[in-house]
Amino acid sequence: MSTIAAGLGKRKAAQRLVDLAAYVLLGIGGIIMAVPFLWMLATSLKPDGELYSYPPEWIGSRLAWENYRIIFEEAHLIRGFFNTMIVVVPTLVIGLFVCAMAAYAFAKLRFPGRDKLFLVLIGTMVVPGAVMMIPAFIMFKTFGWTDSWKPLMIPGMFGAPIVIFFLRQFIKTLPDELEDAAKIDGMSPPGIFLRIVIPLTKPALITQGILSFNAGYNDYLGPLIYLNSPERYTLQLELASFSSYYVTEWTLVMAGAVVALIPTLVLFAFAQRFFIEGIALTGIKA
Questions:
Q1: Which of 53, 60, 64, 240 has a CA that sits 20 to 30 A from residue 130's CA?
Q2: Are the CB atoms for 266 and 154 separated by under 8 Å?
Q3: Domain of 13?
């Protein structure tokens, strides 16, 4: 018995060492990941003349809170934020619902050519976005959609292959017995989708919603290509107004980046539990 107890004690000690090493490595990794954000915050509070001091200093001679006042006075950040919400939120809600329908069809419904069609869908994911940029611009210009939010909204409302793939992998983990029981009760496929699949897929939907929101919220290239009128500028274009061909006001750029980061931090804080659950469960069942 003493030998067994000693062996168990050694295993527990070894496990504690492994856990400690893991926590140390994760802590070091967390600090490394936090350094750019802390530097951004520190730069946003520096007087402009001390930005290029050498050796670099984390904290300037004083905290230049006026940088935040200037960004709200010189750039229309509030207007840019609401313009961004107008573009992102409807596109996100409609596009996510369309992707969920397609994912349910690929995961649970049986129809001729389903697997081949899914392979074609997956194949579109390898096409670089830069390849489609010029044809898309010519097409939208022909439609008369340039200098409007339509090119930024309408394509996204038809879904995205990566989102469909992500949701399909999650829906495939749902037990088929739930669908069979619903069919026995006389429920149609739309009813199964709305009353069973959607509620059970909430973690994956929230996860993908966060990822899609961040992609749309931080999109700079799309608005830059299609928007010309300042009153339609999104938040990212407003932030870019502090950078010109000859000079970039980095203290103001960093202050604007800190302000722009707040909504995404708040969103992640409220949806963190669903985000982790959605990431953890997706892809368990092939």
A1: 240
A2: no
A3: 2-66
